[in-house]
Backbone:
C-alpha cells in the first residue's frame, strides 16, 4: 500500500516537472509577430491557388509587378513604370537587380514565362480570370516587356496587381513544384510549414527593397473565432483579422490590444432573381423593396455600426463610385403604392441567406424580411448551407431573393460586368440595355470618359434595382497596441512595413 | 478462434466498404463541389474546364467505379483543396488524433475507475453522491463551452496554459481534459454499477468469509471481475473519440482527423473526406476486434467459436 502511493507521487512529480520545463516558443524570438488566421495556406503555388488567406500569407514571399498603396492607387512593385503604346499595347519597364531567393534573376523572360503560362487555357490557372484579355508578351530588352491585349484593356495593371511572379525555372518544371517550397522575390522566405498548424516566415536577407523590421512572422491557424480572440487577449498572437463585432469591447478593454477597422471591399446585398417567373420580374416590385428597407437602421442595430451603406451598385471603396448618386429613400407609402400598381397579390417570396458566412448575415436577413413584411410583401427567410446556396445561385434556380456578398476585386467600374452582365457567373439578372452599356464602358481607356460612362451606368442600374443595395462590410482587426500596422481596404495583408513601437 | 477472426475480418471489410460507398453517394448528393473549390469570380468557362479535369463531368457510376478501383490499390486521389495526395493529409493527422484520444482516455480511466470504485464501495454515502453528480455533470457540459471556459480561465486570466496548438505537453492538457470529461462520466457510472454487481456475488462473500483483508478482496476479486464492462466502454469511447473530437480539435486548434473530416466536407474536398472516413472506419474496427479479444483474456469463461 505505502509503496503504491510512493510510485504515484514520483509519477506526479515527474509529470509536473515535464510540464514546467516544456519549451516555450515566445521567449525564443522577441521581435517575432504572430498572426492568428482561421485557415491555412492551401498551397505555396500561386499559379494554381487563389484565395484571400493564401494570398495574405504568400504575398510576403512572392510579389506582383504592380500593387496598391494605402490609398488604393496602383503603384509599381517589381515593375518600374507602365506606358500605353497604343490601344492594345502596354510597355512595362522592370526593376533592375532583383533576384529570387534561389539566386535566379528576375527579368523580362520571367514576366513573359509567367504571363504566357497563365494565359494558356489548357494550364487551367485560376488567376487567368485576372488578365484574360492579354494576348501575348514580347521581350524588348532584359528589363522591358510589351504586353499585347486582344481588346483595349484599361484594367490591365489592376489585373497584374493580382499576379505573383515566380521563377522562370519553376514555370518550366511546372508551378506545382512550388506547392511546398516557394521561391519568390519578396521580403520573407518560408522557414517552416506545419500544415493546419502554422506557417513561419523569416526575413529574406537578399531582398532588393527596404529591410523589414520584423525578423520573423508566424501565421498560426486557430479555426475557432472565440479561441482566436482569446489567443489575442492572452498575448499569444499579436494580430487577428475578423474580430466579431460583439467582441470589440472585450478586445479594447483588455489593455494590451485594440481593434483597428477599415472599410473593406466586400459588398453585401440581396440579389433579386429576375430570371424566374414571379413578382420580382416587375421593376416596380424591386424598387418597392429598395424603398421599404431602412438600411441605415439595420446598420445601426443589427450590424452595430460595422458597415458602410452602398448608395448604388458600386461600393464606397470603388474609384468609379458616382458621388452624386443618392440612395433610395425609405418610403413605406411609396413602396406600398408601387406594389399595388404592380398588382402584387401576396405571392410568397423566399429570402435565402447563409448562416455565418458574412458578418451577421442571418440576423440581417431576418431584419430585412421583417421590414418587407411591413409593406405587405409575403417574405419567408430560408437559411441554407453555403455549398447548396452556391449551387442554387450558379444554376439560377434560386427562387426569390438571396443575401449574398461579392468582393470588389478591381476597385474599378468594370465590377459592374461581374455583377450585372447577363451570363456572368453568379448573376441571375438580364437586361439587354444594361449589357450594352457595360460593353460600351469597359474598353474606354480615357479616365474622364470612363468615369462618365460608369456614372451613367450606375444610375441606370440603381433605377432597375436588380439588388436590394445594402452595405460594405467593415474589416475589424484585433492588434497588439505595441505593433505599428494599419489595415488595408483591399484585404491584402502585409507585415513587411510593420514595426514594434 | 481462427474461424471467428476470419468471420470478424470479412464483416469488418464489408462494413468499411458499405460505409465508404454510402459516404460517396451522400457527398455527391450534397452539391456541386467545383463551385466551392474555385474562386468566386471564376469564369463559367474555367468552372467547366475544372469540372472535367477533376472528373466531376462523368456520370456518377463512372466516378464511383474509378474511386473504388483506385481505393483498392490504396490510392484515394489528390486533395482538391491542397493539391497533395489525400492519403498524405490523413496520415499527417493520425498521430495528433492518436495522441489526443489516448491522453483523454488515460485521463478518463485514471480518474474514472477509482472514482467509480469508491462510489460503489461507499454506496449511498457522500463519496458516492459526489461522484454521481460529478459524472452527470461531466457528461452534460457541452465541450465547446467547457473548452472556451478553460481557455478564458487558464490562458487569458491566469496565463498558465497556451490557448491551443500541438507540440508541448502543456498544450495537451486542456484538450484532453475537455475531451476526456465526457468519457469520464461514463467510466465512473459503469465502474460503479459493475463493481456493485460483483460485490453482491457469492465468491466475494466467500472471500470475505475466508478472512481475507478487505483491500485484497476488493482488488483481487472485485475489481478484476468488474473489468469486462469497463474495457467495453473504454473501447467504445475510443472509437467515438477518434472521429468525434471535432469540436475540441477546432477550439484548441488541434490538427486532428475530426477537423480534417469536417473541413473537407465543408469544402467538398471529396478525396480527403473519403480517405479520412476510410481510416476512421478501419481504426474503429480494429479497436472493436481488440476489445473482443481482450474479453477472452480478462474472463476465461468467454470463448469465441
Residues:
Amino acid at each position: 500500500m505505502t509503496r503504491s502511493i510512493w510510485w504515484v507521487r514520483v509519477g506526479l512529480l515527474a509529470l509536473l516537472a515535464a510540464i514546467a520545463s516544456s519549451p516555450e516558443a515566445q521567449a525564443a524570438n522577441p521581435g517575432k509577430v504572430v498572426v492568428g488566421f482561421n485557415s491555412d495556406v492551401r498551397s505555396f503555388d500561386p499559379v494554381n491557388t487563389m484565395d484571400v488567406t493564401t494570398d495574405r500569407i504568400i504575398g510576403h514571399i512572392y510579389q506582383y509587378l504592380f500593387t496598391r498603396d494605402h490609398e488604393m492607387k496602383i503603384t509599381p512593385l517589381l515593375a518600374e513604370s507602365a506606358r500605353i503604346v497604343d490601344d492594345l499595347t502596354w510597355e512595362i519597364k522592370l526593376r533592375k537587380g532583383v533576384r529570387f531567393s534561389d539566386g535566379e534573376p528576375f527579368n523580362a523572360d520571367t514576366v513573359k514565362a509567367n504571363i504566357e503560362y497563365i494565359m494558356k487555357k489548357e494550364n487551367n490557372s485560376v488567376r487567368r480570370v485576372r488578365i484574360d484579355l492579354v494576348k501575348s508578351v514580347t521581350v524588348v530588352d532584359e528589363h522591358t516587356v510589351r504586353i499585347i491585349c486582344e481588346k483595349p484593356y484599361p484594367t490591365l495593371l489592376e489585373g497584374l496587381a493580382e499576379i505573383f511572379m515566380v521563377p522562370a525555372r519553376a514555370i518550366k518544371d511546372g508551378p506545382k513544384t512550388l506547392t511546398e517550397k516557394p521561391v519568390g522575390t519578396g521580403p520573407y522566405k518560408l522557414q517552416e510549414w506545419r500544415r493546419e498548424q502554422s506557417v513561419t516566415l523569416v526575413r529574406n536577407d537578399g531582398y532588393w527593397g527596404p529591410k523589414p523590421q520584423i525578423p520573423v512572422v508566424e501565421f498560426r491557424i486557430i479555426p475557432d473565432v472565440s479561441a482566436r480572440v482569446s489567443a489575442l487577449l492572452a498575448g499569444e498572437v499579436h494580430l487577428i483579422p475578423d474580430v466579431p463585432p460583439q467582441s470589440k469591447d472585450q478586445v479594447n478593454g483588455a489593455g494590451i490590444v485594440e481593434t483597428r477597422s477599415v472599410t473593406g471591399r466586400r459588398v453585401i446585398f440581396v440579389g433579386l432573381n429576375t430570371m424566374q417567373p414571379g413578382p420580382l420580374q416587375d421593376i416596380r416590385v424591386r424598387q418597392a423593396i429598395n424603398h421599404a428597407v431602412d438600411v441605415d437602421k439595420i446598420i445601426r442595430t443589427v450590424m452595430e455600426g460595422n458597415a458602410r451603406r452602398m448608395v448604388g451598385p458600386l461600393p464606397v471603396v470603388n474609384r468609379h463610385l458616382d458621388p452624386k448618386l443618392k440612395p433610395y429613400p425609405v418610403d413605406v407609402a411609396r413602396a406600398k403604392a408601387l406594389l399595388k400598381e404592380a398588382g402584387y397579390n401576396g405571392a410568397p417570396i423566399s429570402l435565402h441567406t447563409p448562416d455565418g458566412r458574412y458578418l451577421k448575415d442571418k440576423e440581417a436577413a431576418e431584419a430585412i424580411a421583417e421590414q418587407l413584411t411591413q409593406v405587405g410583401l409575403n417574405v419567408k427567410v430560408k437559411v441554407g448551407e453555403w455549398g447548396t446556396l452556391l449551387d442554387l445561385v450558379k444554376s439560377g434556380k434560386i427562387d426569390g431573393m438571396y443575401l449574398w456578398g461579392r468582393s470588389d476585386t478591381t476597385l474599378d467600374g468594370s465590377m459592374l460586368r461581374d455583377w450585372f452582365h447577363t451570363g456572368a457567373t453568379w448573376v441571375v439578372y438580364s437586361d439587354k440595355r444594361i449589357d450594352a452599356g457595360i460593353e460600351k464602358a469597359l474598353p474606354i481607356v480615357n479616365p474622364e470618359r470612363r468615369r462618365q460612362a460608369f456614372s451613367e451606368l450606375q444610375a441606370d442600374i440603381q433605377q432597375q434595382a436588380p439588388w436590394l443595395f445594402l452595405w460594405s462590410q467593415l474589416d475589424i482587426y484585433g492588434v497588439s497596441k505595441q505593433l505599428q500596422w494599419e489595415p488595408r481596404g483591399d484585404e491584402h495583408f502585409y507585415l513587411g512595413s510593420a514595426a514594434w513601437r | 478462434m481462427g474461424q471467428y477472426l476470419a468471420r470478424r475480418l470479412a464483416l469488418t471489410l464489408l462494413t468499411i466498404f458499405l460505409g465508404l460507398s454510402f459516404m460517396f453517394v451522400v457527398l455527391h448528393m450534397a452539391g456541386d463541389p467545383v463551385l466551392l473549390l474555385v474562386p468566386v469570380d471564376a469564369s463559367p468557362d474555367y468552372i467547366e474546364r475544372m469540372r472535367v479535369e477533376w472528373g466531376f463531368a462523368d456520370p456518377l457510376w463512372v466516378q464511383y467505379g474509378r474511386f473504388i478501383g483506385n481505393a483498392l490499390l490504396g490510392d484515394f486521389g489528390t486533395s482538391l483543396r491542397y493539391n497533395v495526395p489525400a492519403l498524405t493529409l490523413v496520415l499527417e493527422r493520425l498521430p495528433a488524433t492518436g495522441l489526443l484520444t489516448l491522453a483523454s482516455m488515460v485521463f478518463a480511466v485514471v480518474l474514472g475507475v477509482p472514482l467509480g470504485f469508491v462510489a460503489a464501495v461507499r454506496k449511498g454515502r457522500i463519496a458516492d453522491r459526489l461522484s454521481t453528480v460529478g459524472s452527470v455533470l461531466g457528461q452534460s457540459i457541452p465541450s465547446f463551452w467547457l473548452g472556451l471556459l478553460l481557455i478564458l480561465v487558464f490562458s487569458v486570466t491566469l496565463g498558465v496554459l497556451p490557448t491551443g496548438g500541438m507540440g508541448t505537453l502543456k498544450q495537451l492538457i486542456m484538450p484532453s481534459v475537455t475531451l476526456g470529461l465526457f468519457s469520464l462520466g461514463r467510466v465512473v457510472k459503469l465502474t460503479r454499477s459493475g463493481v456493485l454487481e460483483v460485490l453482491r456475488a457469492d465468491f466475494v462473500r466467500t472471500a470475505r468469509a475466508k478472512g481475507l483483508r478487505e483491500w485484497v478482496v476488493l482488488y483481487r476479486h472485485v475489481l478484476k471481475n468488474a473489468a469486462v464492462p469497463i474495457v467495453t466502454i473504454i473501447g467504445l469511447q475510443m472509437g467515438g473519440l477518434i472521429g468525434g473530437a471535432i469540436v475540441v480539435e477546432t477550439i484548441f486548434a488541434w490538427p486532428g482527423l475530426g477537423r480534417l473530416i469536417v473541413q473537407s466536407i465543408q469544402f467538398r474536398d471529396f478525396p480527403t473526406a473519403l480517405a479520412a472516413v476510410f481510416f476512421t472506419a478501419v481504426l474503429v474496427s480494429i479497436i472493436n476486434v481488440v476489445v473482443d479479444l481482450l474479453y477472452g483474456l480478462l474472463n476465461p469463461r468467454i470463448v469465441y467459436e
Chain A is about 30% helix and 25% strand.
